[in-house]
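Let's practice the habit of predicting before peeking. Look at the sequence and jot down your guess about where helices and strands might fall. Then scroll down.
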Amino acid sequence: MMRIRVYHRPSTLEETLALLARPDVNTMPLGGGTALNGLPLEVPDEVVDLQALDLNQITRDGPLLRFGATTRLQDVVDHEWTPPLLRDLAHAEAPNTLRNAATLGGTVATADPESGLLAGLLAHEAAVSIAHVDRTEEVALSDLLADRNRLAGGLITSVQIMFGGAGAWERTARTPADTPIVLVAGHRTEEGDVRLAATGVAPAPMVIEVGDIDELDPPSDFRGSSEYRSHLAAVLAARVVARLTDGDGS
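Done guessing? Here is the structure:
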C-alpha cells in the first residue's frame, strides 16, 4: 500500500495546477487511486486529490463527445452516448471493482501498453485537454503517448473523441480472461474512413496502417515473439477492416 506523506484536496483547478507545477516536489494527481496504489512506497512525495474539481462530466457537442478526466470507467460503460466500441473496451479494461474507481484520465496518464481502451480511443481520434498554470492545450492522444513529457506540470482535464460511425475490435490472448497478446481496434467514420490502432506491437498503444504492419518491430516476451505479434496484428487488422467494410461494426 502506498504511504502518503502529504495529501492535498484543492477546490479549484488553479490551486491544483499550482501544486502540481512545483519543480522541487514530486507531486501526483489522485483520481481513482488504482494506479497510485501500485507504486513503490517512496513515490510520490505528495498527492493532489481531484475529487472536488467536478471533472467527471460527459458532454456532447455535435460530432464531438467529451469525457471529463475523472469519469469512472464504469460510467464510460454505462453512459448512453458512449460508442459501442469504447463501451466494450472499457468493460474489458478491468473487473468491475476497479472500473468503479479507475478514471479515464488516469488510464490515459498511465499509458498501459496493453490497454485496449487506449487503442479504442486512438481509433476514435481522441484528443486530450491538458491544463497548465499558464495555458491549456489540446494534444492528440497519439502524440501524447509518443511523448509523455507533455504532461509534465500539467493535468489532464478531459478526453474528446469523434462521435458516430461504427467500431470493431479483435484480440488474441492465451485465455479469454487473459490480457491480449495483440488487440486491434478500428473505427469507421460516417464518411467511410477507417482508422486502426493496436496494442502489443509497440511500447504504447499506437495507430497502425494495414500496409505498414510488416515494418513494425513489436517487443518480444514470454507470450510471443516479435514476428508472432506482427503476424497477429496483420490477421486481426484484416478482420477488423472486413467487419467495418461489411457493415458488421457496432
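How did you do? The CA atoms of residues 31 and 50 lie 6 Å apart.
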